[in-house]
Write a structure and sequence with these properties.
Blueprint lengths: L1 H25 L17 H12 L10 H16 L5 E4 L2 E2 L4 E3 L2 E6 L9 E7 L9 H20 L7 E6 L2 H4 L1 H9 L6 E9 L7 E5 L3 H11 L7 H7 L7 H7 L3 E7 L18 H19 L11 E6 L3 E6 L3 H21 L5 H31 L16 H22 L4 H23 L5 H13 L1 H10 L4 H30 L3 H13 L3 H6 L2 H24 L9 E10 L4 E8 L6 H6 L7 E2 L7 E6 L9 E6 L10 E9 L6 E5 L4 E10 L2 E9 L6 E5 L6 E9 L4 E9 L5 H6 L4 E2 L6 E9 L2 H6 L4
Parallel strand pairs: 3-21, 5-6, 5-7, 7-9, 12-24, 12-25
Antiparallel strand pairs: 1-4, 2-3, 4-6, 8-9, 10-11, 12-13, 13-15, 14-15, 16-17, 17-22, 18-21, 18-23, 19-20, 19-22, 23-25
Helix pairs in contact: 1-17, 2-4, 2-10, 4-10, 6-9, 7-10, 11-14, 11-15, 11-16, 12-13, 12-14, 12-18, 13-18, 13-20, 14-15, 15-17, 17-18
The chain binds zinc ion.
Zinc ion binds next to helix 4 and strand 7.
Amino acid sequence: MDAARNRGLLLAAAGIALLLAATFAAYRPVAPLGADAPPTVFSAHRAIAILQDLVGNGVPHPLGSPAAAQLRDDIVNRFSALGYAPELQSGFVCNDYGVCGNPVNIVVQLAGSPGERNAVLLAAHYDSVPAGPGASDDGAAVASLLEIARILKARPAPRHPIILLITDGEEAGLLGALLFVREHPLSKVVKAAVNLDARGTSGPSLMFETGAANTWLMRLYESAVARPMTNSLFYVVYRQLPNDTDFTAFKQADYQGFNFAFIGNVGRYHTPLDNVVNADASAIQHQGANGLAALTALANAPSLDAPAGESVFFDGYSRTLIAWRSEFTLPAALLALILLVAEAAILLRGGAVTGRQILRGWVGILCALASAVVLCAGLLALLIEVDKVPALDGASWVSQPLPMNVAAVAISVLAAGAVSVWLARLAGFWGFWVAAALQLAVLCVATAAFLPGASYIFLLTTMAAGLAALPCAVSVLTTRTCNAWTRDLAALLPALTIFGGVLPLLRFLYMSLGSVAWPLSTLVTGLSLATVLPLLAVASGRVRSRIIAAAALVAAGGVVCTVCLPVYSAAWPERVNVEYWVDADTGQTNYLVRCDSSRLPATLAAAAHFDPVPRPRFAGGAAQAFYAAAPRLALPEPELQLDSLPSMVPGAAPSSHFELHVRSARGAPEVFLVFPAGAHVAEVGLVTAAGLARANAYKLHSGATWLEIVGLPADGVTLSFDAAGDQPATVQVFDQSYGLAEGGFLQRARSARATSSQDGDVTVVHRTVSLNPAADRRDGKH
Ligand SMILES: [Zn+2]
């Protein structure tokens, strides 16, 4: 008797376990090819040999640094040795947010000039962050481009010209890519781009962003890429993240194309640990092979004039690509909804279920979802509170995420089990089934209407539910009964469909988002488990209690393990930057410590007298730091000279034009100008001996209150800018050099479980400058 009651649930559990195993097997990175691989295929070992030569010294090479110049020479020499004629493109450029610099791009053409013909671009960036050598981000892609350049010479010429672009200044703010699309003549003939980047050092290569004409693109991708890993939901999620790549600039230039990245071991990203030793051959093999395949498919496409049209798409366990045009989604969703409503009406009329049971089922599903998500989010908040998980506003990953990854799912199982006990009789199989199916159908219609890229799992599940319930609906219509096998099938098919869709997503969720992925995993699992609730409702009480007990145990175990395990490790260190600040206005000098955990690490607290309460790094700044008094070094302050006075136009909106000469007297490579909150920089440009070139004037996003110049020349720059809003009376000026002018003992005190990241340890000299001498004179300050 019990066996028959539990059969559906056991089959569902076995099916989900198989899907889980298939997910892990499918999304493993590929096997790297050795140096003996045929010359016309991509070999990770050959790429890594190049990578070792390029960045094996471990020296960071940010925009404007001597190390970047050296690396650029090495890359140029390698292209020359392959028989190419690499060209350098340089120029002053600002991005939309006010970061400016002078990147030097390397542009390489395959088989002569494209002339007027449409061309395809393959891109990677050679600059790194100041903190680390950027072996995976993005040295591996640069080495891969060199390997691909060699292969292209060995293959027949493609239908369309190929341009290889190795950009500079990506880390500073996409500066090289912006310079290329805005100013390089070849940028006008490019129709599609393939971009290779990384937000980690390992893992499979995901294609997470495409152009708008993705119906056309995904057809090419499907035909070209052997191990597809992509879906239209990745991009929906990616848009929510603060990350950008050069592909953003390419899309602004209306290029179609593909953006590939691997995201495993994000703990090493933008730190000194992103070195050649930690570069992963599998990741490089997958990404290099994908890049070459996508480039070749585009370069041999019959035409590069992409027909408009968007698709919903996903890979079938990395073996095939499934795609359909976005406009089919909403009608299909509505059809599925109509079918389900019709089936529900038949079940209601046939007496298989009552309206009250459906309502109870739906209340149960909502209670399970809400209680599980609240519990998981509450546990996460608690773990953050007791410093066992870093705060969500920083890099919120831990060294050992597995226990909480499992616990987040177990919490959903626990809630579903509890609700099934509560409502087994009151809702019953069909009460839960109809409620779950209708809820998914409504979510399906909503996503199909507003976020089609995210709709595919809901659509497939709703259609599976509609089809799976047909035999029962027919049976109820004719005989007023439905046998247990047919009934179980009605739940099994949608349950396996939804888990088949979400397991590959759950596989990458934590990696993508950090610990906020835990409550999200609980939500996603909870939505999926709603389809299993009908089977839980008819299972025996003993099985339900065992499931509840096991889930509670696993969830509790996951939380306890997370509390006991170290948050950070040598392989997954905390990001802690030490800074030396000189305030030229007050004469004060301080050590500043910025860290992910928002708690001052004990080893640093013991090394100097830090104020226990963090403060903003400067007036109006968002980032907080711990302060300790430091000995004073005689560092010269940054120079800022007003070359042209602001003039108010009578009758016009308050706005003013400035020309400022900025220079770091101590040769620091970065300068920041911070304006008062109400004064927004509207447009900025570089003034040369010949005056302001209008081509070099960049409009900024409205509301920009700062300017940053990266890779500042020794003799400084003269900037012209318009300030909208309040006329700025004062400006804060900072110059920043990499490394500490003072405070080596603090770097040594940083524990093995901590590392610098991003800009790394820096020395900053800060002063305030009046921009309004006329007002100062009126106030009697002169
Ligand atoms: Zn990058």
